[in-house]
Amino acid sequence: MITLRNLHKRFGQQIVIEDVSLEVQRGETVVLLGPSGSGKTTLLRCINGLEQFDGGEIEVDGILVRSDMPQRERLARFRAIRQKCGYVFQQFNLFPHKTVLQNLMLAPRVVKGLDEEAARQIAGDLLELVGLSEKAGERPHRLSGGEQQRVAIARALAMHPDYLLYDEPTSSLDAARAREIWAMMRQLADAGQTQLIVTHQEELTRSIPCRVVRMSHGRVEEEVPSVGCEVLPVGVSDAPDVEASAVRRGSRF
Amino acid sequence: MNQPRGLPISRLRRPLGAIRCGVVLCALLAVAETHAQTAAASTAGLPFSQLFVNYLPLFLAGTWMTVKISLMAMALASVLGLCLALVRVYGHWAPSRLALTYVEFMRGTPLLIQLYFIYYGLPQLGLKLDAMTAAVIGVGLNYAAYEAEIYRAGLMAVPRQQTEAALALGLTRGQAVRLVVLPQALRLVIPPVTNDFVALFKDTSIVSVVAVVELTKTFTTAAINTNRYMEFAVVTALIYFGLAYPLARLARHLERRIHPHHDYATQPA
Ligand SMILES: Nc1ncnc2c1ncn2[C@@H]1O[C@H](COP(=O)(O)OP(=O)(O)OP(=O)(O)O)[C@@H](O)[C@H]1O
Ligand SMILES: [Mg+2]
Q: Could you say which of A179, A232, B175, B241 is the most buried, measured as most Cβ atoms within 10 Å of its Cβ?
């Protein structure tokens, strides 16, 4: 479970996050909506320590980080948290000097210490899962935006994260590509993957069963449950079983 | 089907050919070094062609010395320059400041004075280096400062988001630098670093002042002994050019091949 308690964050004089408390339960998908500049990205970055915060605390599965902890201790705990929380960026941020397959293999190799063969196995399975096996040897810049984002999600999944954090995962994609990604996220949700999704695209909440949290001016405003019953496109949804089983194998058991 | 973008072999071939020529030349020079003892004696009135033949072994030996000093100084400058850049960008305040001071000082003082200091000055402190070592260290330390600035620019040119992506996957900062930032930075700096090596190669002519018998020293000896400054100057210049040009061509070729921002086309910084 991810728990934020009374989180505060300032950039200089500007208060960006003000007394935010939020819980993300295992297995649920939470969508964080809000206008531009309301502090959504900052909140997400605080959770895995890409941004420092000024007050309150963050707890992920019992790993607690408080703003008044010594720097060294905080960094160590965030490293542990990062291995539990996969992060997907709006701009994908794939590693351009590595092939698609190597992008997926890097973290399992150096963070988990898996051998080449085991990492290749995981990476290969995940590429198949996101329907990009034939692109394994390509450099990321040769892929379309939608394909790159699928690789980025697979790269995060390769660490078998308990939680997946997304920052505007589909904002730089056209509508059709975006819906493909949403279909993937829905499949992950159905398979029990915990997800926290930051977006300003309201349609997303109709595609995925989720709890909606609204933010504005650095505060959490309201929470609305959603069933996400909209019919999904058939793009990549032809392998739901593989997906479900991979997620189960990966993060649950 | 997507054809993977391989190396355009046809474009590679020419600079590689030039490098191969350089390697062959170096081998010849190494052989010539052993025959270098046969110096010219009294030469007044001889045609230049005869003088040229007489001095050829000396020139080949001198050229070989220039190549050797250049290569070793380049190696020193590359390694030290990279270390300086890493300390500058990722080091704590004090070491970073120290590296900056080194860079500014080496760039702000003449190489000639640095060489005098190392070869003639250090013995006063009891540190006596042979001429070639002094030359390599002098040029290497000097160029390390310039390389450091290039590497630093390369490290800073890799978008911050690359580091964040690596950290978010659980890599340590050290791993992120070593496995994600550095490989990309090194790619970016290959052309400017190669360009700098052309300059370094020519700058080794300064080491003739510290009793190293390299190409320029050989030239002055030959010219003074025979009073044929113009002819020998042309010969010497041609030798420098013959070796520098392929390297300069290679730098240009690499500049064309490596488009710094190509890979980030979908990742605006
Ligand atoms: N590194 C930074 N330095 C200073 N101010 C920042 C920084 N990052 C964000 N901000 C400010 O914090 C506020 C919240 O930014 P944030 O990126 O979290 O908003 P957001 O809700 O993600 O907006 P968007 O929907 O446009 O992505 C903005 O006013 C922004 O200008
Ligand atoms: Mg944002």
A: A179
